[in-house]
Write a structure and sequence with these properties.
- The chain is α+β, with helices and mostly antiparallel strands.
- It has one domain: Sandwich (Jelly Rolls), CATH 2.60.120.
- The protein has 5 helices and 11 strands, in the order E-H-H-H-H-E-E-E-E-E-E-E-E-E-E-H.
- Strands 1, 2, 3, 4, 9 and 11 form a 6-stranded antiparallel β-sheet that branches.
- The longest helix has 19 residues.
- The termini are far apart.
C-alpha cells in the first residue's frame, strides 16, 4: 500500500504554531517560520539535538496523531488502530546528511505478525518527497552504523512528491529511503498498527534515561529503619 491522502490544513497550522511558540521560548527570540530554525542550527550544530527533542515533546502531536488515526479507521483502513510508535518530527538539511535514511523497511522495527502503517506528512509549505521502491529486489541486508540495517540490491526507486496538506500513507513492508533533496525538509511521521489477537504486546517501549538513572542512583540515600 502506497497512496497520497489529504490532511487538514487546520491541523498542520496548529502543529506549526505550537512549534514556533515553543522554539520562541527556547531561544528567547521571536520565531515564526522554520527557515529561522535551520539558520540557528547551521550556525551552531549543538542546537540540533535540542530543537529535535523540543519538537518531539510537543503535546499537540498527540492531537494530530489522534485525528489522523480516526480518518484512517473510518475512511481508509477500516481497522481499529493503536500507536505503533510515538509521533515524530524529523529535520533534514544539508548539515544532517549522516542521518539520511538508507533503503529500509519499517517492518524491521515491528513484530513480524503485526500489520503496521506509516503516515508521512510534510510540515513545510513547499511539501517534500520520499523515494519508494518500484519493486523490492533487495539482494542483501547489511548493518548501518546509524540506522541499524539497510537494504542493498538492484531495486529501483521512484520519487513520490507530497504536497503541504497531503500525507504519504504506506505499510510496514514498503521499501523506501530518503530522497537526496538539496532543500531543507521537515516532516511528521505517525505510525499505527492493527490490534493483533495473536500474542498481543505493545510495540512502543519506554526506558529510563540512563543519565537520569545514574544521577538518582548516586544521590538517593535509602535509610533502613
Amino acid at each position: 500500500m502506497v497512496k497520497n491522502i489529504k490532511i487538514s490544513n487546520k491541523l498542520l497550522k496548529i502543529v506549526n504554531l505550537e512549534a514556533f511558540q515553543a522554539l520562541t521560548n527556547l531561544f528567547g527570540k521571536n520565531i515564526n517560520n522554520y527557515k529561522e530554525i535551520f539558520n540557528i542550527v547551521r550556525n551552531n550544530v549543538n542546537y540540533r539535538s535540542q530543537v529535535f527533542d523540543l519538537m518531539n515533546m510537543l503535546p499537540v502531536l498527540n492531537y494530530i496523531n489522534y485525528e489522523v488515526k480516526k480518518k484512517l479507521e473510518k475512511k481508509i483502513i477500516n481497522k481499529t488502530l493503536l500507536n505503533w510508535t510515538y509521533p515524530q518530527i524529523r529535520f533534514d538539511d544539508i548539515s544532517s546528511k549522516k542521518y539520511s535514511a538508507p533503503a529500509h523497511k519499517d517492518r524491521w522495527v515491528i513484530d513480524r505478525d503485526k500489520k503496521g502503517y506509516i503516515v508521512w506528512i510534510p510540515l513545510l509549505k513547499e511539501g517534500a518527497s520520499l523515494l519508494i521502491a518500484k519493486s523490492d529486489r533487495t539482494k542483501k541486508i547489511i548493518k548501518n552504523n546509524y540506522w541499524g540495517l539497510e537494504a542493498v540490491g538492484p531495486s529501483k526507486f521512484t520519487k513520490k512528491k507530497i504536497k503541504f496538506g497531503e500525507a504519504l500513507l504506506f505499510d510496514a513492508d514498503t521499501l523506501h529511503k530518503s530522497s537526496n533533496a538539496k532543500k531543507p525538509r521537515i516532516t511528521l511521521q505517525l505510525r499505527y498498527e492493527e490490534i493483533s489477537k495473536k500474542n498481543f504486546k505493545k510495540s512502543v517501549i519506554q526506558k529510563i534515561n540512563p543519565d537520569v538513572l545514574k544521577y538518582w542512583k548516586k544521590n538517593l540515600i535509602y535509610k533502613s529503619k
